[in-house]
Amino acid sequence: MSRTATRRTVVTIDVTTPSGSRIRQDHLAAEEPLEIRVRKRPLAVTMRTPGHDIDLAMGFLLSEGIIGEATDVTTAQLCAGTDTPNTHNVVDVVLDPGVPPPETDPSRNFYTTSSCGVCGKASIDAVRTRSRFDVAGDPLEIPAMTLAGLPAKLRAAQRTFDRTGGLHAAGLFTAAGDLLVLREDVGRHNAVDKVLGWALREGRLPLTGHVLLVSGRASFELTQKAWMAGLPLLAAVSAPSTLAVELAEESGMTLVGFLREPKMNIYSGAHRVTV
Asked: Cβ neighbours of residue 85 under 8 Å, at least 6 residues apart?
């Protein structure tokens, strides 16, 4: 079995049946730490589902404003860690000589969990990062019918979720509703970073005219990540937060919540969704 999931013995109880309980095998979504280093210096540790780790590191550096395009990175490679047996839970990134190294003061020390990507930052100023891309003028228009059909496409592509039921997903779509890439992870912010890292390495930034769909809610952090990649539309199958809406309005991004066919709520930038 791949490192994205593992099998465990569980006791299943059904109070509606006379037999009461049974022993069976269950699949669990994997969660392991990944250390991101810049020129061999530790920068961040995130709890994630193994897989697409280089993309995750690239997306993290992009969303933090450390890099803005693929040429900002000279090399990025998985390295041996200190655990036994070695699982290569380290990504070392070497930046181009012209790219300033990341700050190392205490307010910029990153420790992220699978539920929250900014838990280790020491101040509000450290959380906020401004994008180099102006999404306010993005001419994207997408029919509401097309947008409403995206969650079903996202769900159909979630292979690991089918086995474990315990992973978030993020998918990048064209304005025509075509799924370009999907990533799954125990952390929603990690799934988004993996998508953005893929786009960066493919030379697709800024993501003009594209849609990012996330399972679950739209937080401030996910909205900021979308903005950092130049995405004009972020959609979520659940609710947005107040800060997510405020940031979407400030940046000129379209923010859609409760996207569940046939309905949706548009919290910002409604002009991009045509009826």
From this structure: none
- Could you tell me which residues are annotated as the binding site? 258-263
Task: List, by residue range, all CATH 3.40.140.10 domains of the chain.
Answer: 142-274
Fold of 32-127: Ubiquitin-like (UB roll) (3.10.20)
- Tell me if 229 sits within 8 A of 199, measured CB to CB: yes
242-251 and 220-228 are packed helices; what angle lies between their axes, rounded to 10 degrees? Answer: 20
Q: What is the pTM of this model?
A: 0.88
Structurally, at CATH architecture level, domain 142-274 sits in 3-Layer(aba) Sandwich (3.40)
- Residues recognised as catalytic: 116
> Strands 90-95, 233-236: parallel, antiparallel or unpaired by DSSP?
unpaired
Report the relative pairing of strands 142-143 and 273-274 from DSSP bridges. Answer: parallel
Q: Render pLDDT for 208-234 as a digit per residue (tens, 0 to 9).
A: 999 999 998 999 999 999 999 999 999
Q: Which residues of 8-33 are buried (b: 16+ CB within 10 A; e: fewer)?
A: eeeeeeeeeeeeeeeeeeebebbbbb
